[in-house]
Amino acid sequence: MTHNVNEIDLVIGLVSISDRASGGVYQDQGIPALEDWLKSAITTAYRVETRLIPDDRATIEATLVELADTVGCHLVLTTGGTGPARRDVTPEATLAVASKELPGFGEQMRQISLRFVPTAILSRQVAVIRESADHACLIMNLPGQPKSIKETLEGVKDADGKQVVAGIFAAVPYCIDLIGGPYIETDPAVCQAFRPKSAVRPAPAPLKI
């Protein structure tokens, strides 16, 4: 399959899953929160594809497949639909389109949230890789609240700005490396991307004027 993006371009899909927001009952907060955080954290050039959809498993699956296989996203972040309610089917839809599951992401997300609320154990977020013949995409389920989205991605810091609990995004750039995606760089003041020394690329030399 040929994608409509240059192989060096980073493409990120953002999917907000909510019956009421997609139906216009209230304004979606998930996608704006994700966009704001990504702008603060990623220094690599990227473009975003957004989707606002209802809590419907077939729709979620079709959206994830479209973003990964047709749009050519390297990373897809979903928000909403990961609790125990009957309409919460985001994890099931995500696993249904997956080639591989990455349990560590979900485990860490719950560890972060448990520092704030005991009901974090009700969250069922998952992260997976979806592979096709010539492309792979990392798909991660995030919480629905903007504050929780930021804490999950960035981690938890104390009053002095020292990180107390690592956020999940620190592992995302290296994961994208391993599945053949573009090299992602971040602002270490927001999120320090971690790579083994052998995988770190030297910073480009400054241009001489």
Can you walk through the features of this model?
There is one protein chain. This protein is α/β, with parallel strands linked by helices and 209 residues long. It is built from 7 helices and 8 strands; from the N terminus they run E-H-H-E-H-E-H-E-H-E-E-H-E-E-H. It has a 6-stranded mixed beta sheet, sandwiched between helices. A two-stranded antiparallel ribbon has the order 7-8. The chain starts with 9 loop residues before the first strand and ends in a 31-residue tail after the last helix. 38% of the residues are buried. Residues 1-8 have low confidence and may be disordered.
Quickly list its features.
single chain; 209 residues; alpha/beta; 6-stranded mixed β-sheet; two-stranded antiparallel ribbon; 7 helices; 8 strands; disordered N terminus
| Number of helices, where a helix is a run of at least 4 consecutive DSSP H or I residues | 7
Report the end-to-end length measured between terminal Cα atoms. Answer: 43 Å
Contiguous uncertain segments of 5+ residues? 1-8
DSSP strand tally: 8
Mean pLDDT: 91
The ordered string of helix (H) and strand (E) elements is: EHHEHEHEHEEHEEH
Global Rg: 17 Å
Q: How would a textbook summarize the main sheet?
A: 6 strands, mixed
Find the structural class using helix and strand composition: alpha/beta
Shape: globular
Strand percentage: 15-25%
Strand order of the largest sheet: 2-1-3-6-5-4
- Fraction of residues in H or I helices: 25-40%
